[in-house]
Specification:
This protein has 125 residues and is mainly α. The chain is built from four helices and no strands. The chain has a domain at 89-125.
Length: 125
C-alpha cells in the first residue's frame, strides 16, 4: 500500500501565480496534458533504430569521422555525451520582467554571435 494521496483535478484551473512567477497551489497549466498518440520525433527515431540497429552504428561512425576531420560541432557532440556538458551558472535575480527579457535577448545575441564567429572560422579554414 502506498501513502500517496490520489491526484485530483481542481474543478477550475486558476492563474494564481506567486510573486516570484511560479505557480501557486492547485494551478494546472495544462490540465488535459499532451493528447495521446501525438507524433514524437524521438519515438520515430527510436522505431527506426529498433527496426534497423545498424543505423546507430552508422550515425556514431559518421560523428566520429567528422570529429576526426576537425568538425568542431561533432567534437562538441562527442564530448557532451562522454563527459556531459559543464554546468553554467545563471544569476536569476531580476527585478522586472522587462529586464529579464533584455537579459535573455542579450544572452541569445552573444551566443548567436559566438556561434557565427566559430562558423566563419571553420568556413575559412
Amino acid at each position: 500500500m502506498s501513502n500517496e494521496q490520489p491526484i485530483t483535478e481542481p474543478k477550475e484551473s486558476v492563474d494564481n501565480r506567486l510573486e516570484n512567477g511560479t505557480f501557486g497551489p492547485h494551478n494546472i497549466a495544462n490540465p488535459k496534458g499532451r493528447p495521446p498518440n501525438t507524433y514524437s520525433i524521438t519515438d520515430a527515431i527510436h522505431k527506426a533504430i529498433d527496426k534497423t540497429p545498424s543505423i546507430k552504428n552508422k550515425l556514431g561512425k559518421k560523428i566520429i569521422d567528422k570529429a576526426l576531420a576537425g568538425d568542431l560541432k561533432a567534437i562538441e557532440v562527442i564530448w557532451a555525451y562522454m563527459d556531459g556538458k559543464p554546468t553554467q551558472r545563471v544569476d536569476a535575480k531580476i527585478e522586472s520582467e522587462s529586464k529579464a527579457i533584455d537579459l535573455i535577448a542579450a544572452l541569445l545575441q552573444n551566443a548567436y554571435e559566438a556561434d557565427d564567429k566559430e562558423s566563419n572560422k571553420t568556413a575559412s579554414s
